[in-house]
Amino acid sequence: MKALLFTAVGLLLFLPNLSLAQSDVKPDQDSFARARVTATTDLGISPVAGTSVSSHRQTLTAQVLDGPDKGRTPTFENDFTQLAVGDEFYIRHVINNAEGDDMWSVSDPYRLPVLITIGAVFVVLLLLIGGIQGIRGLVSLIGSLILIFYLLLPSIYAGHSPILVSIGVSSLIIIVGSYVTHGFNRTTTAAMLGMIATVAITGAATYWVIHAANLSGFSGEANVYLNLDTGGRISMIGLLFGSIMIGFLGILYDIAIGQAIAVEELFVAGLHYTPPQVFKRAMRIGREHIGALVNTLAIAYVGSALPLLLLFKQTSAGDIGYVINGEIFSTEIIRILMGSIGLVLAVPITTLLAAYMLRLVRESSGGHSHSHSH
């Protein structure tokens, strides 16, 4: 009994000090800055602890070029991307306040000059070869990026429904991109309406598939970190839905505009064609387009998922069904298939709308074959 009494008294005396000590603990300070390598020492190749992988190591000294640590010259060991004297990179500085340790590491090589260079080459080629249409396309691209970075991302981060935000921003991207690039006319309007209808139908189907497949949206480390960083206020399922919708917009735009223009050209070139004949011939063009674009979409996703395919190859000796059933693979398969379904649906929807709207234009302008017979 006395032992229990002494224990209780000790805990009462100790707990306040413990809680006070915990309140005094400060979180680690983590900062990034640009730096330049001033000296290196090659340490050779050594195995990574606990794995069968070897890594090249070096000791490097760097001068911090900006940020709160500007002017400092830390020396530390690097087993990441090997750098040479004069190379610029982003340095990471972590201060462990609990133990008073300073830790420096290489975050990433400095790639901005390369990115700026290839961006400039793209713009020059676009202007030289694309002409005024290239300029319109560039303005449309800039407008789409503005909508994504200043409307889509902030709205989702603020906790608004990723599903509603994605559908709304997708529609805005379609409207802005269509009219800026191709002007205000019935052909563009037909393509725009076809894209919006396709997004609505594909969106409803995607929403059902995501829930029917019991996807959680946590298919990668980035999703986990984002969920922790935002305190769980962002729906990962909604975010997955939004990524699928935004992901196939570019190719959807291509096929819808192509179909609308094909219908317009058929109406202009074949005054004797009836609307059903125009629809039939335009669908012939659309089927060829579908074959190419579905393959393009699938190959694009496969290219971005090569690590997953290598994992599949490594584990193929086991239960293949189990591997494919995993959320990582299931998510990518659904992403490919729902995007492809949207492209397939866009052809008849856009072709039908364009044939109907352009038929009205031809009849109102007296270009219909029946008007000539009179």
Question: Could you walk me through the main structural features you see in this protein, from its secondary elements to its overall organization?
Answer:
With 374 residues, the protein is α+β, with helices and mostly antiparallel strands. It folds into two domains: 30-42 and 56-110, OB fold (Dihydrolipoamide Acetyltransferase, E2P) (Beta Barrel), CATH 2.40.50; 126-373, Up-down Bundle (Multidrug efflux transporter AcrB transmembrane fold), CATH 1.20.1640. It has helices spanning 2-24, 112-157, 162-182, 186-212, 221-229, 236-247, 249-269, 275-304, 306-314, 320-325, 327-364, 369-373; strands spanning 29-47, 54-64, 75-78, 88-96, 101-109. A five-stranded antiparallel β-sheet has the order 3-2-1-4-5, with no helix packed on it. The radius of gyration is 29 Å and the shape is elongated. Mean pLDDT is 80; it is low at 1-23 and 368-374.
Any idea what the shape is? elongated
**Overall radius of gyration:** 29 Å
Distance between the termini: 115 Å
Average pLDDT: 80
The fold-level CATH name of the largest domain is Multidrug efflux transporter AcrB transmembrane fold
